[in-house]
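Supplementary Text 2. Reproducibility record for the structural model of the 380-residue chain.

All settings were left at their defaults, and a single model was retained for analysis rather than an ensemble. We include the record here because the model underlies the residue-level annotations in Supplementary Table 4.
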Amino acid sequence: MKITDLRVIPAKHYLFIQIDTDEGITGLGEAGNWGFLGATAAALEKLKEFIIGKDPSTIEYHYQNMYRAMYFRGSVIMSALSAIDIALWDIKGKLLGVPVYELLGGKTRNKIRVYASGFGSQTADEMVKGCKTLKEKGFTAAKLFLTEQQTTPGGEREFFSNKIELLIEKVRRCREAVGNDFDLIMEMHRSLTSPEAVALCREAEQYRPFNIEDPIIPDNPDAMGALAHKINIPIATGERFICMHEFQTLLARGGAFYVRPDVCAVGGISQAKKVAAVAEAHGVQIIPHNPLGPVSTAACVQLSACIPNLGIMELPDFCLDGREDAMVKKPLEIKNGCIIVPNGPGIGIELSDKAADLFPAKDRATKGAKISFDGSVLDW
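Retained model, structure tokens:
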């Protein structure tokens, strides 16, 4: 079998690829890095030169060859590599007639618990309503998007004491609303300083959140490690990392109890599986970062199905109401807050032939950073 083509399929703010072979078997992949999809598409055109005419089954060789052939790396290149890696695994699974997880050691579970994130940065009342609705639908965990970056002319919402109070109220009220048989993920989206993170976690600890996600900017593993040693809420981070070595450095500093590899950004299924092994060696669990399209979700399911150290898996909000079901020929099954592990070959889904027409490409990239009341730049 030989690879004959790599086609880029933009749909909505996603970037899918399809790799074709001379035996009619095709593989689907998806690139991360949604802010720079044009650059990622250009990288994919370049990387086509590495795989056209080659055997798709030598997945690790292709990854190493593309990764190590040139000096330059970064999020654009790694997102392109990720898409190709996922597509090659999809082809190999279809060729052998088995799900990808069977090629990676087999199932460790039959279903995958997920947390939903169907509401963004909202008021406490809106978050309470959202959590109750999710629980009624059978979910057992929710992400609370706690980026308290709304500004006022005087900046009152940004002041230390008031900011902490506003965030604590949301966590407290959501816990009271759903009881103890429901987990809450505190998603901070890198919006806190270290002193704010310490103060927030010490007050929020009584409400037993599952974790606090990206409390501070994750670029400095020493800072994240120092924070982790000051608080008792587990830190989850790693969604922006683009190689397994970043995870190793973070874990060596004790900077997380959960790590969040993005299959579409870290190097595909191959590298995400290696990250899971590194985390396992440190006694740390995996929470796959999954904010993208259905190919990303399907790839995350394959990873989650075969690793022993899964904590929980992120579920994009489009899965809650089926508004993107038409993007695929058959959506994954979600039941009682879990994705049922599929038995189909490859990654388990197929794009609709009309996906690009039904969901026209739309740039999601922001045009600037969030701005504080004093005119300074806030991290997003």
